[in-house]
# Entry
Amino acid sequence: MKLTLVHKGLLLVSIPLCFEVVSFALLLHLQNELQAEANRINNSRLIGDMTGKVTVQILILEESFEHFEGPGLATAKVRQVVNEMDRDFAELDKLSQGDAEMQQDVRRCRDELKAGIGDFEDLRKKLASGELENIKQVSKAFRTRFNDHLRNISHYGLWQLASRSALNIDTDKSTAIREQSVLFLKIAIGCSVLIGFIIAGFYTKYLTSRLQTVSDNATRLGQRKPLLPAISGKDEIGTVDKALHEADKLIDELQQARAEIIGMVSHDIRSPLTTIKCTADLLTEEMGEHLDPSSMIHLKNIESNCDRILSISRDLLDIQKLESGTMIIEREKADVQECVTAAIAATEGLRQNRGIQVVANLQESVAMIDPVRIEQVVTNLLSNATKYSPRNGVITVELKCEKNWVYLSVSDQGKGIPQHLRKDVFARFKQVDADDSRIKGGTGLGLSISKALIEMHDGKIGMEGVQPTGSRFYFTLPCNLS
Ligand code: ADP
# Structure
């Protein structure tokens, strides 16, 4: 499944959110319980008040029938009290809803009241119709029965009701619920903050470690070092890392193709060029005397251009070998002095017509080197010094061996290299001046090849300015032969 960073962020945010929703629901439940408890207490108080009121009404009824001689006098008052009692019982019935036993008690009281009133109405009807004569005897019996009903109401009904409703007033329970709510609220807030911190920490670490890998891979891609393994996931960061890996693969393929083309072209150019150069040499040697000066100049041009293209193709082949890791140096015990002498001789032709002089101070310096490659480096430094020296300039070559290190320097009196460009001249295809290639005939490869060759010998190469004008290129090589 493709989850973007936004999806992942939302997913992580939803975890504390769910926790908060559940906590809120539980808190709401506790709140409802607390409310129900408060309602129950309130009901119980109202029931207590009602039972008190009904007790007073019972006393009024008892008193009304104390001197009962016939229903005529007491009827209105009795009816008023009985009606009130009936209303109160209806109210009590409502208040005791949800408690079956209490409701049963209320109904029992109501039934007793109805039975008493039924007796009273019966008696009243009988007296009115003249069916009963001895009112005194009858009223005594009626009072006894009526009082029994009232006693039942107060003893078995109201007393039960009052004591049951008192049982419902449980202040400890509401206090416990309130304490529980507060504790729960504290725990919920604490957990919510903790979960928030854990998730924020985890997500930040997750993101930064992935971004770090992408950033490392981008740096490695720039430096052409092997990339770190591709990071998992299909989010934006994973996509960028995948793109870097694809770019790396593509660059590898392009480099491979470029190396193959350079190798192929350089090889293919060298053979016909060598033939052309040999032919020009031969013509100069054998027919030199018979040729007019302008033809001679043309022949010399052919030779020098052949030399130039051969040197470029050699540099390109070297670069290709260095890039592909196939450049091999064959180290042997040899005197660097001999390499320097050979390089001075090889570049003599470049200096001849410009009056440039080489002053060499060379000490014997034996080291484990590939003499061919070291001569190539010195030749490059000398040919550069010659190219950039003024007419009749002096090139100073110094070779010494000190403290297990061979030190060679080539100084010229040329235009020098500005401070801020000095470290760049050892990079591939770098030239201080764009015109250098056109005017001096360079490619910008010589110093980068020299640097790689010296480093393969465990040495160091560098340059510095020379006063009042000029450059000094130098390298060191280890010469501890033990
Ligand atoms: P190139 O084939 O162009 O000489 P190099 O790699 O040998 O290539 O040199 C790179 C660049 O460094 C040159 O193009 C030139 O701009 C500068 N450079 C090298 N040697 C000297 C020097 N002795 N004096 C001034 N500039 C130099």
